[in-house]
Amino acid sequence: MLNLNNFVTSLADQGSWVAYSIIFLIILCETGLVIMPFLPGDSLLFLCGSIATLPHSFFNVELLLILLSFAAFLGDSLNFEIGNHFGKSLTKPKWSKWIKPNYLRKTNDFFKCYGSNAVLLGRFAPIIRTLVPFTAGISKMPYHTFAFFNVCGGIAWVSLGILSGYFFGNIPLVKNHFELLMMAIIVISLLPILLIKFKKNINLTTSHKTLKGNDLNEKK
């Protein structure tokens, strides 16, 4: 995973359905297994899209869109069921090595802030993407509501990642600074979390000032 570019390129060069299967499994596990938020998501989609546009590439962009959208949908559905059936057990301290309490708290804040839309919006933020369906399962969110946002979010996320790579991945400036671009994608993906954190800090500061003002008024 530390050499994602070479890894995916070598898979595509093999010209085998094994390549599609491995990419499918990575997306499935990254979205579907709550203990694997560290797997590549956004950068993998972008990279697959950029390789698909190369002459004689084994990757077909239409097939990638269909297969990986299904993998994203299936992964979130699996994660929802894990949260629904085993969520309370997996949030105990003995699992804290794999499911970081800090990540889970941020995901809960994200879920409370955006409600049902968190299932869709969470697709675009690493770590949050893996933990939102798990949190939705724990909270006993109605499955038909979850499924709707899951489908919309999965298609939107995969399409944005793959098509961005397909149309922009082979521009010389992008190709020459591919590693920096991968880092930029990760940073941009984390922006929703940073915005929520910023908003939460503002609300806490405002509440503190309000309480302090009320105390002063009472003393007067």
From TrEMBL:
Highest taxon of the lineage: Bacteria
Compartment(s) of residence: Cell membrane
Similarity-based family: Belongs to the DedA family.
Main localisation: membrane
Swiss-Prot/TrEMBL keywords: Cell membrane, Membrane, Transmembrane, Transmembrane helix
Source species of the chain: Liquorilactobacillus nagelii
Pfam families documented for this protein: VTT_dom
Residues annotated as transmembrane: 17-39, 51-74, 146-168, 180-198
Ranges in coiled-coil conformation: none
UniProt key word Transmembrane helix: yes
Assigned GO CC terms: plasma membrane
Protein name in the entry: Cytochrome O ubiquinol oxidase
Domain VTT positions: 39-166
InterPro entries in UniProt: DedA-like, VTT_dom
Topology within the bilayer: Multi-pass membrane protein
